[in-house]
């Protein structure tokens, strides 16, 4: 099955397609570059394997006439829908998970991201207390640190977010 491509941006004489599943595959982009050069309606093109994008310039031929030719070649399947991406929260959680793995690996499993967060909050608490900022930043930082350590000591120390509707 050919890879999925979707239109990222389009003007009258230019279209940018993204092939996310072929990102960082220079051999694929080199192969299709050779085949795209043979299509008469394409005046110029660029392909970037690092972004998974192809930019086609077609000033003399409308996209509606060029698209069937691209489909016929079967280099990729053109879809109307963009690649599905996770929510911003999922991206943040994924990044934090990777950082947690790096911290754990770097400390031979003795530290994790939550422990580092707790130590950081306690350091800030002590710093603010030394500065005499007891009612301002110090107390909320202490409560946050204590809440974090309480979560660490619970049996389920994973960060969970309830995405269900409360009603």
Rg over C-alpha atoms, rounded to the nearest angstrom: 26 Å
For the largest beta-sheet, the strand count, sense and barrel status come to:
5 strands, mixed
In what order do the strands lie side by side in the largest sheet? 3-4-2-1-5
So, CATH architecture of the largest domain?
2-Layer Sandwich
Query: Assembly state here?
Result: single chain
Overall form: elongated
What can you tell me about this protein's structure?
The protein has 167 residues and is of the alpha+beta class. The protein folds into two domains: 4-79, Alpha-Beta Plaits (2-Layer Sandwich); 88-153, no CATH class. It is 47% helix and 15% strand. It is built from five helices and five strands; from the N terminus they run ββαββαβααα. A five-stranded mixed sheet has the order 3-4-2-1-5, with helices on one face. The chain starts with a strand and ends in a 14-residue tail after the last helix.
Give a brief rundown of this model.
The protein has 167 residues and is an alpha+beta fold. It has helices spanning 26-36, 63-73, 88-106, 113-130, 134-153, and strands spanning 4-10, 14-18, 44-48, 53-57, 77-79. A hairpin with a 4-residue loop joins β3 and β4.
List keywords for this structure.
disordered C terminus; 47% helix; alpha+beta; 2 domains; 5 strands; single chain; 167 residues; Alpha-Beta Plaits; five-stranded mixed β-sheet
